[in-house]
Task: structure prediction
Amino acid sequence: MKARVYVTLRQGVLDPQGRAVLHALSSLGFDQVRDARIGKYVELEIADGPRDEAEKAVREMARRLLANPVIEDFRVEIPGEGEAR
Amino acid sequence: MKARVYVTLRQGVLDPQGRAVLHALSSLGFDQVRDARIGKYVELEIADGPRDEAEKAVREMARRLLANPVIEDFRVEIPGEGEAR
Result:
């Protein structure tokens, strides 16, 4: 079973990597970009089992290891049947 | 308009950061995790305009700056009306 975790900086937390990307895009001529923020994307392969238990476990993993709750938010996604991509 | 870019390592490319996460999760007791791969998640705020043009531009940004096409794949997502989250 696949699970995806998206980790983003909380609103208001300075994102120097995002600033650098914004400037780089602007010097490449992409002037339409107003803001850029960089986060992490974690793809997990977990043993098959009940979906709700898996989601609970992955949320716990995100809280304890993958995200820093002081400055980061996270979102967990477990693709259902037929929407695996 | 928001655009999201997911950058992942290509299949077969070694992912030491993912290995480290896998080991750390295992020592925390999350034995159900079989594999972990780490990617980047870029959130862009771009000037409003036609959606297909925006998507084309963002794919170009990904190709030229955000991803390294030799070792990374990317996926672009422009959330439509009503599915912004």
Observations:
- The longest strand of chain A covers residues 33-46.
- Chain A has one domain: 2-77.
- Chain A has a mean pLDDT of 93.
